[in-house]
Design the sequence.
């Protein structure tokens, strides 16, 4: 009985802590995707809940991640280019996300998850490092308070123009945020430095009414189903367009999630069920697409935070997703 109460307490604090960290990340990944902050939030809610409830890793926290967002940006950009604008591209975008989740489920049913461990580590390391570099480059213009070009190559080509048009207020807030994130742990690690940076710099910008761009209003209440929007897409005649991006997202989500599962195993001395995890991730990504969210995967940092805060069962992941709803 005492052990159950201990796990319940740990799951509660683990889920709350992970949710606090997940919120700004979900909003940021949503903005980066081009669909808006709410798309990141909805993706985190749907995937976080279903992957935790139905997946094969008890302590894993799932949601939008850097690698999945970078690929999603490409999917969205190509869909917009093939349409007359973002509004017309939404059916293609969300059917791609939906198929990605479906492919993950199929990979789990086919028991492919157990073979991911054979991928060479240098390949994974190089890929993840490349994704990290892309994310950093794509944030240079927003850090300067400017609208970012659509590709990393364009950012590099136009960087000289950004240097002479910096919004000093945006740049100052960005630098202040980074300083707090990296230096606050020297004071205490009990409170996540990301949360402190988010609150402090938001209050600073609001109090001094700094002329910087905000993420905008977030809709209240539960999201609506996009089923009608998705069904309006002529899938059979456009299957060749969406199949490769969906497979790419599914493959990346599979690798990303199962690598995080291995990390969780090492920390908790447990063993995850890889194929069950893929099915849970796939259902979560399909649910996310149905409510207008971007796809994601198991998130290593959020999972580690959950475990370090006491999370030991799938309840912690469910609590994390419910916190995002609130």
Sequence:
């Amino acid at each position: 009985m005492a052990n159950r109460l201990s796990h319940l307490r740990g799951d509660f604090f683990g889920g709350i802590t992970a949710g606090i960290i997940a919120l700004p990340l979900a909003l940021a990944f949503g903005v980066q995707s081009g669909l808006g902050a709410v798309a990141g939030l909805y993706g985190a809610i749907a995937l976080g809940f279903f992957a935790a409830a139905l997946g094969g890793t008890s302590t894993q926290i799932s949601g939008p991640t850097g690698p999945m967002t970078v690929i999603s940006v490409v999917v969205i950009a190509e869909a917009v280019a093939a349409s007359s604008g973002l509004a017309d591209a939404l059916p293609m975008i969300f059917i791609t996300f939906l198929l990605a989740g479906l492919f993950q489920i199929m990979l789990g049913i086919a028991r492919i998850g157990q073979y991911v461990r054979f991928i060479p580590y240098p390949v994974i390391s190089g890929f993840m490092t490349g994704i990290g570099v892309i994310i950093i480059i794509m944030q240079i213009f927003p850090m300067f308070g400017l609208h970012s070009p659509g590709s990393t190559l364009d950012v590099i080509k136009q960087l000289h123009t950004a240097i002479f048009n910096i919004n000093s207020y945006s740049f100052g807030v960005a630098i202040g945020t980074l300083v707090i994130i990296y230096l606050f742990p020297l004071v205490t690690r009990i409170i996540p430095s990301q949360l402190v940076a988010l609150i402090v710099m938001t209050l600073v910008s609001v109090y001094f009414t700094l002329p910087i761009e905000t993420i905008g209003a977030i809709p209240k209440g539960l999201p609506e189903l996009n089923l009608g929007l998705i069904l309006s897409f002529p899938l059979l005649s456009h299957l060749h367009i969406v199949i490769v991006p969906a497979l790419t997202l599914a493959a990346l989500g599979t690798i990303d999630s199962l690598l995080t599962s291995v990390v969780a195993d090492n920390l908790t001395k447990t063993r995850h069920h890889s194929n069950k995890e893929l099915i849970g991730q796939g259902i979560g990504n399909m649910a996310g697409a149905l409510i207008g969210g971007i796809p994601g995967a198991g998130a290593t940092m959020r999972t580690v935070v959950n475990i370090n805060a006491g999370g030991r069962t799938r309840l912690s992941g469910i609590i994390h997703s419910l916190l995002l709803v609130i």
